[in-house]
Amino acid sequence: xxxxxxxxxxxxxxxxxxxxxxxxxxxxxxxxxxxxxxxxxxxxxxxxxxxxxxxxxxxxxxx
Length: 63
Description:
The protein contains no helices and five strands. It has 63 residues and is an all-beta fold. A five-stranded antiparallel β-sheet has the order 4-3-2-1-5, with no helix packed on it.
């Protein structure tokens, strides 16, 4: 099972702390996952391995 789901906000902890929503999840032959993320400010999808991503606190639903 993948660590992140489509629609979740994630942040790249390895590099420039790029963030954005997961738009696709791809299983790999070795059993891990890769994620397509619509990174903020770039207008393009970037692909990341699971080990280099972490959740960003979502503000949705907060009162």
